# Entry
Amino acid sequence: MPEPKNDSRRAYASAPVNQRTAPREVSKPPPVHASLKARAQKARQRQLLGPSISELLARRTSDAPRRHDKLHPGVIAATVCAVAAASALVLIRTGTGLALAAALAALGGASWLWQHRSQRAASETMPMPAGPPPFDTEALRRIDEAFEATAAIVTGPMLAALVSLKAAAVRMALALNGVQADDGFTLDDRMYVIESIRRYIPDTLSAYLQVPAAQRPVPGAGEGKSANDLLQGQLALLQSELEQREQRLHGSAVEALLRQQRFLQSKATRS
# Structure
């Protein structure tokens, strides 16, 4: 069988003859430096941690309902005086002496009313003395820095435990406002919450941060636990103690409602 002859009107080659039919190479993304990856990882971990405790407490304070300003008593007195003066001017032109006396009496009454309302308003707007806040600025700054620094270097279960502990601390810090100690939530419970935010949690995280990064996963010579194991155990212990006191606080609130119910039942009319 004779071999087919090449057609001179066509192009023949062992490779693609144009770019349309040539295979395209997939461009690889440029390599990312290790330092940039580490910074992005730390940013994601801080984002999981959420806003700082001081910011959350400040939001709660700013969200409190504000007292509406009342009408100043001077405005009321000035209005009364203006009306009385206008009435006196009209009545004087009519030649009525009794009307003049009434106008002067109205002015005197308006003056007395202005002084009385001014003194009363001053006493109402006088701020009540408030006790010192349970958490000072330095304590909140210290615990926020400790949380942020630790969240930037831990991962996995330790990061989850850190986020959970912070949430429990914020809940208890917000719940302390207006809570009085009783049999359910004692003064020791209140002081434990305050000291946890002021000292216990920051001291735990600071002690962990002082351990060199290379030595944190290495088991110690004492109990054979590494710094990572010790930190995770201490975070779990702190959260357990805070949650127990949170349950006592809620139980104390329910008990107060039950006492009110028993009181109302004792005062109810018996048929």
Observations:
- Residues 134-263 form one domain.
